[in-house]
Amino acid sequence: xxxxxxxxxxxxxxxxxxxxxxxxxxxxxxxxxxxxxxxxxxxxxxxxxxxxxxxxxxxxxxxxxxxxxxxxxxxxxxxxxxxxxxxxxxxxxxxxxxxxxxxxxxxxxxxxxxxxxxxxxxxxxxxxxxxxxxxxxxxxxxxxxxxxxxxxxxxxxxxxxxxxxxxxxxxxxxxxxxxxxxxxxxxxxxxxxxxxxxxxxxxxxxxxxxxxxxxxxxxxxx
Length: 222
What we know:
- This protein is α/β, with parallel strands linked by helices.
- It has 7 helices and 8 strands; from the N terminus they run αβαβαβαβαβαβββα.
């Protein structure tokens, strides 16, 4: 029973890192159980993406103040939908702090976020190389107290960083150094109330695409 696992409606902080088997379906179902959430991190979890799932976050977590959506690096391909995540994030209207490292967001998506998140004070868009700071964006960003731009230093970034891949560069994952390859299925879940849950995931034990999300939450909430 899903509700049995999601027994912390008062949870205020949730961090999901390297959760490769968490999907839109599992995440979207789980996030609805945390209406008081104020801080959310969803890093290195590439199977949670698109406008709808982040709109679900905006609708289900109206008090969300800090959101981190970070990747290993920038990857832009011809068929990528550059502003899908940005349009969903724009519904998180109470945000004070936002990091979207290595995202394919464009000027249009960033403008949507700035226009709809009037309380935003801290913005980190490092390695978001589809953003070009023109006069319009600079004017909209003037109110941001802490601003990190696409080309700013990543010395203090706490995750592994891959070299950027552009649609016309011809680079592929085969060109990456072995030290930078994505690790196997691995999930780390944090909350403000609990110690870290850190476990290797066995694919054979996953009954459906939401299974790992449930297991992570069960460990978190026990």
